[in-house]
Each structure stands twice: as C-alpha cells, then as structure tokens.
Design brief:
Layout (H helix, E strand, L loop, with lengths): L8 H15 L9 E2 L6 H16 L3 H9 L14 E22 L2 E15 L21 E2 L6 E2 L2 E2 L1 E2 L8 H7 L12 E3 L5 E22 L6 E9 L7 E3 L7 H12 L11 E3 L8 E4 L5 H16 L3 H7 L17 H28 L22 H21 L3 H17 L1
Parallel strand pairs: 1-9, 2-7
Antiparallel strand pairs: 1-4, 2-3, 2-8, 2-9, 3-13, 5-6, 9-10, 10-11, 11-12
Length: 426
C-alpha cells in the first residue's frame, strides 16, 4: 500500500527534476536489461483518457470515444495532460530458493520455498512503486540497455534510478518477531532459520508514459494536479492513477458519485488501477504436504508485507548506495542466465515433488502385497508397493544429485566470498 499520496504538483515536479538530472547519466549497471518503448505518446494519451477524464470530471464522452474509436476526430475534444513524459522505471525480477524451519498444522520441520518471477520495485517512486508494472512473460523482448534508449519519439526519457536492492529482504525477514512470522492460523516460521539456497536478482527497466492532469480551480476552488501512467512496452496494459483527493467538496462529491454507480475501484486510497495487474509474489513450489494451502499463505503474507505502508521506505534505508552490479547475485536477464536458474529450480522442484509423494504414501495403510496399476517414471506396471517406493527414492536421489551438480558457479563463488568476509569480521 502507498504510505503517502501525491496530491500536489510541487512534490512531483521536484521528484521528476531530480530524476531528470540524475538519470541523464548512464546507469552504473553492466547487467541492465530493458524493455523497449513500443507505444507512442498519442496512443498513451488516448489510453489514459477515460480514467483521467472520469477522475477530472471533464470531457468524458470524447475521451472514451477517442480511446475506442481512434482516428475519427474525437481526439480534438478529448482530455489531454498538461504534460507527459516517457519514463524508465527500475524493477527487480527475483528467483530464489529459501529454507527455513516451518511450523505447519502443529508440526515443525525444515522446508524449502521456491520463488520465481517475483517482482520487487527498484525504486520507491510514489504511485508507480505500488503496482507491478512489468510482465515477465515479455522476457524475450529484453535487450541490453544502451545510450540510444534514452531518447524516444524525439523526447528525452526520464530514467528513475535504483534506490532499492532486494537483498536486504532476507535480513528484514530474519529480524521479524515470532508474531509477525505467523503467515496464517496454521502456518508460521522461525525467522532466524531463514537461509538462501540460491538467490538471483535481475535488474530490468520498464518503459512507461507518466502524465499529469490539472482539474478543479473553479469558483475559487484550488486546482489539483493528478498523475496517471501506463506501460509502454506493449498495448492493452492497465492504466494506473493516484487516488482521488479527499477533503475537497467537489472531489468528495465525485467519490460519492462513482461509488453510487458501482465504480468503487476509482475511490481506493491506494493506486487506482483500470485493468489487471499481476501480484508481486509468485511462489513456484514448497516442500510441505499438502502444499496448496502453504503456497497460498506464503504468497499472501509476502504480498501484504511488501505492499504494507513503510515497507519500501525500509528497503530504501537498507539499500545504501546502489552504484554497482558487481554483486554476483545480480544477473543479466538474458535467456541463458534465466534458463540456467530455471533449470536448477526445476530439478529441485521435481525432487521435492517425489519426496512429497513418498511422504503421502507413508501415511497410507496398504496391503504390502498390493500391485501398482498406475505408471510413473521408472515404475513398471505390476510392481509391488515396496519396489515402487524404492524406485521413487532412487529417482529422488538422482534428481537431488543433479540439483547439486548444476548449482550455478557464480552462486558457489558468492558463497565462498561471503563466507570469507564473515570469517574476517569475526
């Protein structure tokens, strides 16, 4: 959730000017990938028109017509922003396997959790940082960021700097109280036991059109400046707006009118979204049985934690001076790098899946003379239960061996370096 709103033009201008001055210089990352712009300024204005016109209470019909009937002349009477700028917003794509002592339905045990395609904002820039602006399904469109990408359509692109690193998240989680480590009624974990088996963070720039509208100011009322943005790497992306201001007579009337016709999503106190956005967190697998409720609990808990008021500010405070990508855990989001980690996670997931099957079988009371009817990898029809269990255990060992042998070399090197650093400190 957003901890602060943008309801004045001056803070936004200060932030943008700071971004313009800082980001006309090159990003200090060699591993930085970016999604290219593919949506023009005029197209972005048309797409943002309906939500901007609804919130501003101005030129709604013409803006809706311009959005859905482009090229028929409605654009001339549609709402337009007082300014609009192309922006690159920094994000992290996170893949990880973590282990921790988990208490599930009264039983404590070590468990592993795999995160994949998990989204962490690379900046706490207001409004933009409150939603997932990336679609990692578009990874094949990523290209190395270069100087030519700082211009688009004749305009200089404002490049918002990284001020958030994903790596302090582990320390923040380890320092949680037991109360805050309770993910649901039946699931909790011991914070001090959280350790990474692997963490890979991919820095990516996402193109957006950031627009500012002006409304109000009639009959002595003060003017309000309102910010909207839309992704610019593909069409049909959601439009996001800051909240409608409160405490102003006409704005409160607008909120009441919108709620009266069922448009409650326009009156939220966080970012207003027209369209669908993906969650931040994606749990790929867990090693516990049954896994579905655990996955849901972890995803919901992490999602709420990252979006909670003040969470991003805490990450900023814990991420001093992101000036280099020499940390080996920072990887370029190339097909080769992504597939290496994905294959490693897949092997661990497959081994864990077999272990869960074996755990379930152990809870059944079966006739030792029963025969297997269903087939599985390496299991022959007609095998005894004991023979099938032995085959499954052998398969799990083989997968775990492959899992260990395919650990990326950069992770091994990072562990050696970090271990040496800890030894020197002690």
């Amino acid at each position: 959730m957003l901890s602060k709103r943008i309801c004045r033009v001056s803070p936004l201008r200060v932030s943008l000017r700071r971004s313009f001055s800082e980001l006309t210089t090159t990003y200090p990352f060699r591993k930085l990938q970016a999604l290219p712009f593919s949506v023009s300024m005029e197209e972005a204005i048309r797409v943002m028109g309906p939500i901007a016109a609804t919130i501003c209470g101005d030129k709604m019909l013409a803006s809706i017509a311009a959005r859905y009937l482009p090229g028929l002349g409605f654009e001339a009477n549609a709402i337009r922003p007082i300014r609009i700028t192309p922006v690159y917003f920094p994000v992290w794509r996170l893949s990880a396997e973590l282990r921790a002592e988990i208490k599930h339905e009264g039983t404590e045990r070590m468990g592993t959790v795999q995160l994949d395609n998990t989204y962490i904002p690379g900046s706490d820039f207001k409004v933009i940082s409150s939603v997932n602006v990336a679609s990692f399904a578009n990874s094949h469109d990523l290209v190395p960021f270069n100087e030519e990408m700082k211009m688009y359509g004749g305009s200089e692109v404002a490049c918002i700097p990284f001020n958030i690193s994903p790596f302090p998240l582990l320390d923040i989680v380890r320092n949680l109280s037991y109360t805050n480590a309770r993910m649901s009624e039946n699931i909790s974990f011991t914070p001090s036991t959280v350790e990474p088996n692997l963490v890979a963070a991919y820095p990516i720039l996402v193109p957006l059109w950031l627009a500012q509208y002006r409304f109000g100011g009639q009959e002595g009322e003060r003017e309000i400046y309102h910010t909207c943005f839309v992704g610019a790497y593909q069409r049909s992306l959601p439009v996001v707006s800051e909240p409608i201001p409160t405490g102003i007579e006409w704005a409160d009337a607008l909120r009441e009118a919108l709620e009266g016709v069922g448009l409650d999503h326009f009156t939220k106190d966080t970012a207003i979204v027209m369209g669908q956005v993906q969650d931040f967190v994606n749990v790929r697998s867990v090693s516990l049985v049954p896994s579905e409720d655990v996955v849901d609990a972890i995803e919901e808990w992490l999602e709420e934690a990252i979006k909670s008021p003040g969470a991003l500010k805490e990450l900023v405070r814990s991420s001093p001076g992101i000036i280099t990508d020499e940390d080996l855990r920072i990887r370029a989001a190339t097909e080769q790098e992504l597939s290496q980690v994905d294959n490693w996670l897949h092997l661990g997931e497959a081994a864990s899946r077999i272990e869960k099957v074996l755990e379930l079988i152990s809870t059944f009371k079966m006739d030792p003379h029963a025969k297997i009817l269903a087939l599985g990898p390496g299991i022959k029809k007609g095998q005894s239960i004991d023979e099938s269990i032995a085959t499954l255990k052998a398969n799990a060992r083989d997968l775990e061996d492959q899992h260990q042998k395919t650990i990326p070399s950069w992770w091994k090197e990072w562990k050696q370096r970090s271990g040496a650093k800890l030894d020197n400190q002690s």
